Every structure is written in structure tokens, then in C-alpha cells.
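Hi F.,

I've been meaning to write this up properly since the lab meeting, where we talked about keeping a consistent format for the predictions we share between groups. The idea is simple: the sequence comes first, exactly as it goes in, then the C-alpha cells exactly as they come out, then a line or two of notes. No screenshots and no reformatting. I'm using this chain as the first example so we have something concrete to point to.
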Amino acid sequence: MPTTEASDSTFRDGSDLHEGKYFNTKKDLKRKLSDIAMKGNFEFQTRKSNWSLWVIECIDPNCSWRLRASKIIPESTKFVIRKYVGVHCCSLLNRNANHRQATYVVIGEQVAPQYVGVEKGPGPKGVQTFARTKLGAQISYYKAWRGRKHAHTLIRDSRFKYLFLAFGVAIRGFRYMRKVVGIDGTFLKGQYRGVLLVATAQDGNGQCYPLAWGIVDSENEDAWTWFLTQLKEVIGDTDELALISDRAPSIKKAISTVFEKAHHGACAWHVAQNIKNKFKCADIMGSYWSAVNAYRCEDFTGYMTEISHRYPRVAEYLENEVGFKKWSRCHYPGLRYNITTTNMVESLNSMLVNVRDFPYVALLDVIQEKMSKWWNDRRIVAMAITTPLTPSRESEFRPRFAQSNGRHTLHLNPVTYHVKGGELEGVVDIFNKTCTCKEFDIDKLPCVHAIAAAHHAQVSVYSLVSPYCTKEYYVLAYGETIYPVGSQSQWDVPNEVATRVVLPREVKERKRGRPKTSRFPSVGEFRKQKNRCGKCGAYGHYKKKCNSQTGSTEGNQPTDVPV
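Output, unedited:
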């Protein structure tokens, strides 16, 4: 018969445990005991476990080894060993190569250092070898695979997660911008995929003024909260700031979490697409856009009454679910000027449509080169302007100037004027720069009433214009230069950053087949498709309406292939 260890022989588990030893959490205690059990070549079983107590003993019922631990106090997470017998008197027959404490979690924690600072690390078979040689445990291939996956999760903090980029030149120039920022995201198509987040303002000439860029895993609440937190660090949080986005719940929640003073507005175009998709009422869009752009609440109420009479559910949706303050210019609590959509962000996304499959570094290089070119080109244009206002604001201002001719102005007090004539009268306060028509208040560009009042008061109309629309601010916004990053050998990188190892992001395996190159249409977005004739191959008509000769060689070739 095979010889066995005597049942009355004893040995210690070789640990440093003792009664009164503290652990931060129950999880830490369990991890410690699992490690001791595998190294000591014994197994234990749980006798009792709940939120405040953990009692374990050796799997041999005749063995004296046991441990009892509980919380220090019910409100704490710390556990303390109350009773501990560290001497074994069990038989070797109870030893098992398939160690019950060798769970995939424990294996993953033990093998995790093997994946730090390397490109790949051991595979499942390598994890099996590690468990056998280092831990003395025989584990299955599946448990090794799960342990490897858990190890990747544990070192995820060493992997690339988020990126935030903001040029100091653009941030310093933001002081000369209207404080309206559009935010949105677009999917990337490279090896590591992800989402590119963008925050952009609009300069005095109506052009995109990118403020910040971010690369995240997806458009979720955590990613948006992190990105907006970084954005808040560089542009601040004031009552004057307006953030415009679509109505994604993750963005809405992140903005309310990060920004306490700024006002959030919804993109009117996205709201319109939701209306068309949800209620199938494209014929009401004219009234909707009139309500969006209405300056006075009286006009807004008239358009909403029209919508309510024709589509009561749409009116209820706009008022209760979306909220007038989110999409209506006249009800918005802050200053969003004439910016009602996120078109300025969509323009940036369109600019990058052909480089979204680039590696991250190459994509950022393209962004830097594009912004450098914009700053230089716009600086040249700004310096050449001969009018007090930027070209776009000047073209918007001149028609109002012409319409102000022939208006009758009545002087009410030193700063207030009553302007008559035209479809709408207005009472102008040239000191506070307001008018009862509300155009002056919202656009910060003098309305026809304000221009007429300025003529009567012999005040320069340009003195009533917001400085954000002037040539001076336009020049200052692009006064600095965005330089290239330069050679990596010239970088001044802190040592704690240079020595840090950042692993690539984990990527799910792509589906089989050719990767898609075009995105899925947004809600309410429709793409016009051209029909191709099955008879002649030409686009724009069906086979039944084809006039070409049947069977002709020339007719089978496409004659109008879309570019």
C-alpha cells in the first residue's frame, strides 16, 4: 500500500497572519488567503460568509487550521482577524492538483505583471505553465484564458484610455470669441477605433474655431464627463458660456455634472430630425424653424399655436420633453446669439472624413497642420480687412443699415428712442444696447431700430456692435502662430511621463468581410439613392423605362456613373 503522511503530524502554513491583523477590505483578505493556500499547498473551504463576517477552515474536517475575521465596525470596510489557528494536522491525501483556490481571478492577479511593459505577453498555454510552475496548480485552458483576460483588465490603467488636445494659441484666442461652444463626436475607423470628440467655437467671421479635441472609447457618460472636465479647465465655467449639442443622454448628464454655471442648448437641427422621424410630419418644419429663429416670445407663441393646432403631439413634445429653453432662441436663458445648431462641429467632422482611419498620432498631426494653415490664412485675411466689422458681419449689417432709412425716430429720454415705420416699431436703449424687437438683444448686432436711433443721436452705429464682430477682435483671435510639434528628440518630457509605459487599447475582433467605409445615417437623415437600370447599366431610371436597344453592347455600359 502507498505510504502517507501520519495523521497526527503538524505543520504551519508559513504565513505572517496573526489575530488582530487588519485588512482594508474583505477582498484583500480573501486574496491574501488564496495566495497563502496555493503556496502552502493546502485548500480551505468557507463555513460562513456575509457582508460583515468570513469564517474558513481546512477542507479536512479533522484538521485544526481555521480563521475567523469580521468587520471592525459595521460602518467600516476594514476586516480584522478575530481568531486564527495556523497549524495543519491534515493528511497529504487531501492535496489536489486542481486547487480550489486557484480561481481565474487569483490566477489573473498573479500573472498580471507578465503583461506590463510588453506588447503581447503569455497566451493561455503560457498562463497554464505559470500556474503549474509558480503556484503548483493545474488549471484548464479555459481557466487560463479567463485568468489572462482578467490580468488584462487589472492592467487596464496602463493602457491607453482617453486623450485630450487643446492648443494654447486657440485657448488664448477664445477670449475674443462669442462664448458659444458646440460639442459632438465622430467615430474613428483605424485599428483601435474609438470616437473623436470635438469642442469648437465660432469666430467673428462665422468660421469654425476649434478649441479642443479628444479621443475616447465611445460616447458614454464617463468619456464625456472626462472630456468636459478637461475642457472646463481650459475655458472656464461662466454664466456667459453656452454649450450646444445633440440631445444624447450621456452629453446631457455630463454637462450637468461638470458645468454649474454654463447653459446647455439643444441643436435645433437634431430636434427637427427627431420630429420628422418620430411624428412623420415634415410639412410642419416651416413653422418649427420660424419658432426656432423667432426673436420675440409673441411671435414664437404664434408659431407654436399653429403647430399645436395641426400636430398637438409635436407641440407637447417640444414643450415638455425637449423644453422651450433648449431649442428656442427667444426662451434660451443664456446668450447663444444666432447659433441654433451644431453645424460648426459637423463641418469639422466633414473635414476629417478621409483621415478617420489614420492612426491616432497621424490623425493629430493632420489636425495640427490644418489648424496651423487656418490660423495663418485667416490672419492674412483679417489684416487685409478695410471695414470695422468682419466680412460676414458687415454683409449682415449693411441690409439693416439700408432698411433704417426713412424711419421716424422719437426721442424719449437721453438714451431711449421710439422708432416707427416698417412692419414693427421698436423702443431702443442705446446705453444698454437693447430693443423691444429683441434682435439687438440676442444678436448683439444693431437692428434697424437701433441704427435709426444711432443716426438720430448722432452716435456711430459701429459703437453699438459687439466687439466679437469687429476686425480688431478677429485679428487678435488669430494673432499667434500654431507651430509644428517638431522632432521627438527635441521634446522636453518630464521623467515621470517618459518612463511611464502606456499599452495600446484592447480592441474587439472585427467582424468578417470588408469593413464599412460609410457611416449609418443619423435619425431622420435620408440619403438619396440613384437607381441603376438592369438593362443598360445607366443610373437614374428602371429597366421598364429604359429606351436603349436591347442587347446592344454599348447599352450595357453605364452612361452616367455617379462620382
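Notes:
Confidence is low (pLDDT under 50) at residues 1-8, 550-563.
Residues 489 and 498 are 12 Å apart (CA to CA).

If this format works for you, I'll send the rest the same way.

G.
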